[in-house]
Amino acid sequence: MQKQLTDRFGRVHDYLRISVTDRCNLRCVYCMPEEGMEFEPEERLLTFDEIAETVRVLAGYGVRKLRLTGGEPLVRKNIEQLVEKLGAIPGIEDIALTTNGIFFAAKAERLRAAGLTRINISLDSLRADRFRLITRGGDIRRVLESVEAAYRVGLDPIKLNVVLMKGLNDDEIDDFLKLTLERRVQVRFIEYMPIGHNDDGWRSKYVPLSTVLERCEANGWHPQPSGEVYGNGPSQNFKLEGAPGGFGLIHPVSDHFCETCNRLRLTADGNIKPCLYWSDEFNVRRYIGDDEALADMFFRALDVKPQNHEMAQALAGESQTHIPTVRRMSQIGG
Description:
It contains 10 helices and 12 strands. By secondary structure, it is of the alpha/beta class. The protein has one domain (about 15-330): TIM Barrel, CATH 3.20.20.70. This is GTP 3',8-cyclase.
């Protein structure tokens, strides 16, 4: 194998998050404004062949894990064809999908057959009315059908992403924890991040994830650290006694995980983002087809990747050393 994708701080990158579209069928309050979004025209999106060519080159430098994101990746037509192309690339061991779950049930079997190995489904509330409020119109029944479809086709682990927001869903922590006592599911509590927000409104909704452990103690549950979850990334994982499932804490603000960051991001319009939070981007589309030049662009991106994202400073209202991105989460790919 050629040299690995290593940055200035010795972090080896074997994981690529690929946004296939900036469009979404929902308008979740932490991800997109209700209106006024301008989307990339289809001709500016990377084609499936361009994505596969990029991954083929990166696989030669040690990339093994992929995650397809958006926007909502399932609004991209024939996404299973991309999964199949990526799965055929030597060296790729894992292809995951992050989805809002509205369209997944209808595509579950085709995606699994194409080579999908894991799934994360966004589910920020277990209450239909509240789910509709957070997503601005989503139907929770379709998401729950997709969870069942994921079980049916044998995806494991099934992860549910829960962005905690003060006054919106932080009173449902107990309900999500109880889910892990009932089913083999991994609930991942995620801190609200200041991605793409040009005001300070996100602070009023921010909930530190220490709250989850406090709820465990209040209920007499004693969570134990768990290292069983494959592909746990930045998640700090736990299990309740006797639970078939588990839960994870992803706290980029209160306890950033940058020292172990192993991921790069490829946006739908062909830009490398070395860090989710900062504005640095490198367009690679024009280099696809020139393996050496394409790889060089990824190494250049790694050369400017900062040691950490400084979201804690953003929470405290302190000055930062880099320029935060103005792109919304849906435009980056999370």
